[in-house]
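Render this sequence as a predicted structure.
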Amino acid sequence: METSTAQHAGIGPVPPGFQAMLPPEFDSVEQERLHRKQELAAAFRLFGKLGFAEGVAGHITARDPENPEWFWVNPFGMSFSRIRVSDLVLVDHAGTVVEGEHPVNRAAFCIHSEVHKARPDAIAAAHAHSVHGKAFSTLRRRLDPLTQDACAFFEDHGLYEDFRGVVNDTEEGRRIGEALGPHKAVILANHGLLTVGQSVAEAAWWFITMERSCQAQLLAMAAGTPFHIDRETALQVREQTGSPLSGWFQLRPLWEQITEEQPDLFH
């Protein structure tokens, strides 16, 4: 690994012959598809374990590597904590189920089809009705640079203020995609959080750490008047911790934990 890449991943002194962990490369589209689906199933299990489920709400999607206009998504009405690779549903951007035995949440299609259109660089998108993301979204404001972790989102997340109820049409999905812009995340007013990434792992990690950053800011605001990290430092920290590689790598401990605890997700 080059020195600059190693530094961005937070790697310090290493033993002789150490090989840093990097996102995998694949010899075939079939291998890449399987890996994306495995990461997707693991991400759902993590969201379930972390308490992000709220009834039938919430969805994570991953582009199909062979047909990038199609995406894999969770079955409507299935618990995050039960989702396996074989349960995932493949949908095209016209709303047709290409592969799978379950229906798809309409809101998932309306939001994610448009987000994927707006962001051809994004492999995955994650949205759930997590408690602190919901609470923070009612403030209709962006995250402040209060902590090192929050700096990953400094000047790199949007705000969608036009809440119109449950998303039932692709036009609102288009507006959400606009509010997301070129960023890694968007706060959906009175709704929750949505994050994207160049891998499923990255999108999932941004959601997890953004939810926690919302929680930290709510606690700090309740306790008093928090001090902000200055802009120059916040941008420096974002450069260190907010890259796609950093997002992918940050999820590795949780990936190892959930796949060891719940290996049935691979079925």
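Summary. Residues 1-6 have pLDDT under 50 and may be disordered. The chain is about 40% helix and 15% strand.
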